[in-house]
Amino acid sequence: MRFIFLIGGLLGFLLAGASSWWADSGPGRVFLDAACGCLTGALLFRWFWTVLIRGFRETLVARQKAALATEAKAKT
Hints:
Blueprint: H1 2-22, H2 27-75
Helix pairs in contact: 1-2
């Protein structure tokens, strides 16, 4: 989870900083935009990661239930 948080922060920092720099903002504004992008990117990646893991977990549970149902059906 920490790795995903760091990757999201890095990508947000780079994307927001680069777009602010290309918009010809001053150095203080570039850093502020990059810092806000870092926080936003980290939180969005963390949220997306939890959604992704929840989907994997639900899929595994559904497959296990289907396998148990198939196995119980074969025994009868």
